[in-house]
Amino acid sequence: MQKILIVDDHPLFREAVCSSIRQAFDDAEVLEARNLQETVEAISDNSDIDLVLLDLNIPDTTGFNGLLTIRTQHPKLPVVVVSGNDDRRIVAEALSYGVVGFIPKSSPKSMLKEAILETLAGGVFLPPSYQRDGEDAESAPGSNGDLAKQLSTLTPQQFRVLRMLSEGKLNKQIAYELSVGETTVKAHVSAILRKLKVYSRTQAVIKAQNIEFENILAADEES
């Protein structure tokens, strides 16, 4: 059973999102919050929340301050921004604060379901237009898509997770082999996607297909 927290000050929107989630996930438990204070309280009272769907424009906070509060107090909790403003600069800034997804409020129900599935699996979901633009920029001549530089930012544990992703293993299997919780694995996967500048596990695996993991990990252990 998944536990999802919806944060939005408009009752009709919360009701619509709640209905969409329950239609897509029969056993989902949905919590609601209208402002930052209620959000912080809900997270404190429910340590097993799997995902937060956060509107940036809620009472008692401005701009990205609410998001920063959540990320600071609960850095491993996956947060997806749901906003009426999908300007690329807003999306990029949200990503820089460590969110695992960005869903425009104009999105159809099918996209909401896709986004939740992707992020619950440890992926990062972005609007299709943003993904296309990002892929174009990544492949453009002179872009900063330097794989070696990106790989240098990964921790040894993130390398291990990336290797297991390349082997087709699920979060549950990775957690078992590394003796950590699934939440920790999801956090590693999200960090890997951000550092490799990709938007899905599949893209990460494709990007890492020529990496000699054993040599890298062996060298790290020797040092």
Could you give the count of β-strands?
5
Assigned CATH architecture of the largest domain: 3-Layer(aba) Sandwich
Q: How many domains comprise the coordinates?
A: 2
Classified by CATH, the class of the largest domain is: Alpha Beta
Which fold does the CATH topology of the largest domain refer to? Rossmann fold
Q: Give, in spatial order, the strands making up the sheet with the most strands.
A: 2-1-3-4-5
Mean pLDDT, all residues: 82
Order of helices and strands: EHEHEHEHEHHHHHHHH
Name the beta content range. Answer: 5-15%
Largest sheet: 5 strands, parallel
SS field, number of helical segments: 12
The assigned structural class equals alpha/beta
Shape: globular
Rounded to the nearest angstrom, the distance between the terminal CA atoms is: 42 Å
Low-pLDDT residue intervals, each spanning 5 or more residues: 134-145, 215-223
Radius of gyration: 18 Å
CATH homologous superfamily classification of the largest domain:
Response regulator
What share of the residues lie within helices?
40-55%
Explain the overall architecture:
- There is one protein chain.
- This protein has 223 residues and is of the alpha/beta class.
- It folds into two domains: 2-121, Response regulator (Rossmann fold, 3-Layer(aba) Sandwich); 144-221, Winged helix-like DNA-binding domain superfamily/Winged helix DNA-binding domain (Arc Repressor Mutant, subunit A).
- It is built from twelve helices and five strands.
- The protein has helices at residues 11-24, 36-45, 65-73, 88-96, 109-120, 128-139, 147-151, 156-166, 171-178, 182-196, 201-207, 213-222, and strands spanning 3-7, 29-33, 51-54, 79-83, 101-104.
- Strands 2-1-3-4-5 form a five-stranded parallel β-sheet, sandwiched between helices.
- β4 (79-83), α4 (88-96) and β5 (101-104) form a beta-alpha-beta unit.
- α9 packs across α10 (182-196).
- The longest helix has 15 residues, at 182-196.
- It is globular, with a radius of gyration of 18 Å.
- The protein starts with a strand and ends with a helix.
- Residues 134-145 and 215-223 have low confidence and may be disordered.
